[in-house]
Batch of 2 targets.
Target 1
Amino acid sequence: MTHLEKLKSVLGGANPDAVIISSGINQRYISGFPFTDGYLLVTRGKSYLVTDFRYEEAARAGADPGLEVSAPQHGMLDFIAERIFADECRSVAFEEEALPYAAYEKFRAALPGVELVPVASAILWGLREIKDDNELKNIAAAQDIADAAFEHILKFIKPDMTEREVALELEFFMRGQGAEAMAFETIAVSGSASSMPHGVPRDRKLERGFLTMDFGAKVNGYCSDMTRTVVLGSANADMKRLYNTVLSAQLAALEVIREGAGLSEVDLTARGIIDRAGYEGCFGHKLGHGVGLFIHENPRLSPTAPEDARLVSGQVVTVEPGIYIAGKYGCRIEDLVCVTKDGLINLTHSPKELIELF
Ligand code: ZN
Ligand code: ZN
């Protein structure tokens, strides 16, 4: 089933009759075509990609053929309103997280008697959770690039480099390997800065101690995400204990992941190991998140997820426990995995045992 067919199949009944899609990510998800100016209108009958002449030709060639491409002379909004009335849609969903208020007001004025329902973001988040084979292929390709970058950076890092130089080299290498963009801002933080889970790379020489690198590439719009922490110099006993606790927590969580496992159960498996080792309160974020066209998608592996929220085959999630000791140092290890019926496919292939550089 195409993504367009998936969306059509949930329309009607208790759901709205049609959906207006205004965000670039969801437009790309449904149409397979990236464009930045226009809308998709999906109804149970006909569906439309509405844009201006700059995108018209490329859209006809690249978008899902189930979408009628239109570049109306008299304005996109009027065209959409005409189609909604012609198709007798009574309720129309809009993206409650992505439609600017001014645009909402214009639709409101153009659609008297039509109920505008703020549920399209939620519907699309739901559809995007389960990845099809093509999406998995793109995510795996993006992760392969990140794995290659990690192998490369281990040989590249020298003691007198700055954190920015390490981050830049990761990005330069990934672009060279075919990444169309970074999945998010690359993190490379060393020494005392490694205690900040999302620290920004500094323009100063690498500190000895932990170096945490969190990075990912984008392929055909799809993201990858991985973290490795290495030691610059040699690790003392406390650092080894901390590192191995994070690793044990990560391996234990990977062990319980499969279709049907509870989202909170997976998080608490890792969190319990960290807490029992005496690091209670030092793992201040969730265990993981879904990854797709966005770097942070559903599901969330969280200690507070509802008990009945469970993993489903085809979801792609990160597993990224960490221990952060403020003012001292921190460590995180993150893999990207695809949930299957009886376990997972780990898309990350980089080594995880403690690596000491120079
Ligand atoms: Zn990450
Ligand atoms: Zn992540």
Target 2
Amino acid sequence: MERISHALVTGGAGFIGSHLVDELVAGGCRVTVLDNLSTGHRHNIDHLGDRIDFVEGDIRDEGLLNKVVKGCEVVFHQAAVVSVSQSVQDPSHACEINDLGTVRVLDASRRNGVRRVVMASSSAVYGDDPRMPKTEDMAPMPLSPYAVQKLTGEFYASVFGGLYGLETVCLRYFNVFGPRQDPSSPYSGVISIFLKKASAGEAPTIYGDGGQSRDFIYVKDVVRANVLAATEAPAAGQVLNVGTGTSIRIRDLWELIGELSNVKIDPVFGPPRAGDIRESISDIGRIRQSLGFKPRVVLRQGLIDTLAWYRAPS
Ligand code: UD2
């Protein structure tokens, strides 16, 4: 990893953020984590002890942001209300965190001489445009407050580049999975839910006929994409898909998880989930070209590693 001297990771106690913090620390980077622990957990970063500076606080707090961003070369902005359904239930709150919070992070960054901000965006911005695979130049079709907010964040990033010369990169994550993903809510990622069910010997519920498909990317690959986005010159100003360019049907996913966990349980089929999109698959040509990024962990291996973690969290 090309050296980053000092980075701020917002949401650094969360699922993706904490893996990013691990990688940065391993690369010799000084890391400050800002997290309000609304969905993040201290236990995700406890193992790092005093090798990081942890600040419990909110990204809307301008005074605090100005303090923690001082001296940082790069900001990785991962903090967000990450649940689509939470954004549907309480759009104002999600807007405050995802939009106002993002503007505050960008503003504090440009005021304090940060070189580059790498932002977590989402494949949600594509909505249910039936064209596959999703390329970054497709017109966005946001279908939820969450998607609108992520898209707005991308626009702000671009405007901060134009107005203030702040370098930004927006990464549109597809379906991320791996250790530390919290399976406990009904809105958790499907892989975390399925792995928990398989480990408990219980049947999962598949919404609809299970023929819907997703592009699942392992969290460590997402971390690598973030680090490259921070260090590779051609990334500046870009919006990039972060996926694998492959997909799997949800019923086949359960079958694979069953095989890897040595359980053979028939799933329960429930009604389709409202607002579910049928297919999702990324085109990763752009990120390959600008960052030289290719995912390294295939789904099967990522599932094996994640299953091991759910059985013995470390
Ligand atoms: C993902 C993101 C979301 C947003 C969205 C954009 C996650 C966790 N969520 O939502 O933040 O970016 O993409 O489109 O990555 N399913 C079942 N049974 C279950 C749980 C899920 O059948 O117990 C199905 C579900 O109906 C869906 C698929 O699995 O078809 C994936 O569901 P998900 O909640 O993991 O992720 P998704 O794609 O809805």
